[in-house]
Amino acid sequence: MRCIHADFDVFFRYSRGIACYWNTTMKTIIRILPGTPFALLLGLLSALPAFAQDNAEEGEVVVIGELNRAEVTQFIEEAEDQLYAIFNANNDDDRFDIECGDFTPTGSHIKRRVCEPRFMTEARAENVTDSRFTDQTLLTDTGLRADQQANYEELQEKMEELSRNNAQFREIAGILQQLRARLAQLTD
Predict the structure, then answer these.
(1) Are residues 128 and 152 in the same domain?
(2) pTM reported for the whole predicted model
(3) Model confidence over 141-162: pLDDT tens digits?
(4) Do 163 and 82 lie in a common domain?
(5) What are the φ/ψ torsions at residue 14 (nearest 5 degrees)?
(6) Which DSSP symbol is given to 92?
(7) Same-domain status, 58 and 149
């Protein structure tokens, strides 16, 4: 089956167990292979626009099942950047804005990409300051996350609400889920 994007902002075609999905935001066509969870296919279908747009840009064909680890990682970073940009633009409380950046873990020289909400970054900085200038013990990441549990629950609610109300956010989240599943296959 050929994936053809036509002139739609988002194009979805399902035939013989293969789904093709055109996304002008990421300017790619993604062919989802058999075995894709039905719930994700329904999510993609719900992202279809009511009307076609004129002059949709050409994109490349990306078969998630054929991507290597480096390519998957690159697409994940792009999808995360787009997803969190949409979330941050629609979020009215800056404490819940999600920021991504590279950090080098203690005892390593290898940088890792981390995306976390601003409230967690601020809690980490406050934790370090408190441990240096008071008699408080430095908390581990697990301890910090436990302290911020209520904020994480509120963040989850905000993301779920945006997913219900914003087709583009929902669309990118679905693609990100597929990319992360592919990365898990490659690392197992």
Answers:
(1) yes
(2) 0.67
(3) 889 999 999 999 999 999 999 9
(4) yes
(5) -125, 120
(6) S
(7) no
